[in-house]
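Need residues for this backbone.
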């Protein structure tokens, strides 16, 4: 049987998030909804969006595989624009220690934390990382995520960093999920370079970045700019070099202390600055002025029992905020989009409309893809989520529960619960 194109009709609430670039400040509340909406997807690409009545004047139901979305809310696929989903081993013991009072940084300084995962990731084979990554992507897509950003950073040597990146490259080719790949060689100082930060930065610049570039293994370069990790100066040196080599830039910025990572992101023209729990007023202004996407990771603050990032001040200052999971084995072992959404809406003073923008078009912008994903607009990829309820209000209301009923990826129904 020849596969038919897809027609979604009768959507109680069709949320288009219409737009081809990030939304900043006030614009974030404009998500554009159509009552009784319909979407036509041909050859995997969105062809038309309108009310069902209008669409059926031009298109014939018989020519399509029809999805009746009566009583359902329809949204663009979510973009999880910050994850560390490829790693070996687990750190459940550290999680238990944190609940007993140890801080994330205490554990890191005792040689646990990222170093622990580095050891397990160095020991893991390509196949092991590929298989576990494949399963994690299967879980993420069920939550309505259709594009995932993934970072290296658990190798901290040439071979393992390249192994992590190649695993993601292969997953991007073989799994239905789309991946945006980031090189995060400057995630921590490996034991071999203890106390020699500058030498490690030089090693990355001279020995690793050129291979990543030549083999086209990553689009973005990220750095953990943090007290006791990489200073603003060390981060700047790496980022400027990476920019010169053609990478787009990201930063883990102002996560644990106010260090100036947000300002640095603005200075170097980063596409996003992420975490930002302790971003200063100046940092917020600088991100808004330079249109750096401020990527907030509510579940990390939740799991670390840290204060939430100042989403309200950021949006009111004109920032473009994205929300993401930060899924990783240490600070945030969850890719729960329902929990991200609920925490943002309940504790971070983001309206539901702002949270939707942050998980769709602004997430897309944070991975440089606002022109092709993140909204239901003609010309974009047919990446769509159908909820089992008639309104997006149900996302935080049915707190922490997955209410996704169908996921359409490139015009194909890939999840049908
Ligand atoms: O984004 N902050 C740095 N990196 C990760 C945590 C990595 C880990 O603990 O393994 C984060 O929270
Ligand atoms: Fe992170």
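Answer:
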């Amino acid at each position: 049987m020849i596969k038919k194109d897809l027609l979604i009709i009768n959507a109680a609430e069709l949320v288009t998030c219409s737009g081809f670039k990030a939304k900043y400040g006030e614009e974030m509340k404009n998500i554009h909804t159509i009552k009784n909406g319909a979407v036509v997807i041909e050859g995997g690409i969105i062809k038309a969006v309108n009310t069902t009545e209008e669409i059926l004047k031009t298109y014939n139901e018989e020519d399509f595989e029809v999805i009746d979305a009566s009583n359902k809310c329809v949204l663009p696929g979510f973009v999880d624009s910050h994850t560390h989903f490829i790693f070996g081993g687990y750190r459940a013991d550290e999680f238990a220690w944190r609940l007993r009072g140890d801080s994330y940084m205490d554990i890191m300084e005792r040689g646990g934390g990222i170093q622990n995962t580095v050891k397990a990731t160095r020991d893991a084979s390509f196949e092991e990382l590929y298989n576990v990554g494949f399963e994690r992507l299967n879980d993420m897509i069920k939550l309505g995520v259709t594009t995932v950003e993934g970072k290296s950073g658990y190798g901290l040597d040439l071979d393992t960093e390249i192994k992590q990146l190649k695993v993601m490259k292969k997953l991007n080719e073989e799994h239905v999920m789309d991946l945006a790949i980031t090189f995060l060689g400057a995630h921590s100082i490996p034991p071999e370079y203890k106390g020699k930060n500058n030498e490690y930065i030089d090693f990355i610049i001279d020995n690793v970045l050129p291979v990543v570039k030549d083999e086209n293994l990553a689009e973005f370069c990220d750095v953990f700019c943090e007290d006791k990790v990489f200073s603003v100066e060390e981060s700047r040196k790496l980022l400027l070099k990476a920019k010169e080599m053609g990478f787009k830039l990201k930063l883990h910025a102002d996560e644990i202390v106010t260090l100036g990572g947000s300002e640095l992101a603005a200075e170097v023209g980063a596409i996003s600055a992420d975490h930002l729990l302790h971003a200063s007023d100046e940092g917020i202004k600088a991100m808004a002025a330079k249109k750096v996407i401020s990527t907030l990771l509510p579940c990390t603050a939740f799991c670390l029992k840290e204060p939430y990032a100042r989403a309200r001040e950021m949006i009111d200052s004109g920032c473009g905020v994205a929300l993401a999971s930060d899924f990783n084995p240490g600070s945030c072992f969850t890719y729960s989009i329902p929990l991200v959404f609920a925490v943002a809406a309940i504790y971070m003073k983001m309206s539901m409309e702002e949270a939707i923008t942050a998980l769709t078009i602004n997430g897309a912008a944070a991975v440089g893809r606002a022109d092709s994903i993140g909204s239901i607009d003609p010309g974009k990829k047919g990446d769509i989520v159908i909820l089992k309820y008639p309104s997006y209000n149900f996302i935080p209301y049915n707190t922490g529960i997955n209410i996704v009923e169908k996921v359409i990826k490139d015009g194909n129904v890939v999840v049908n619960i």
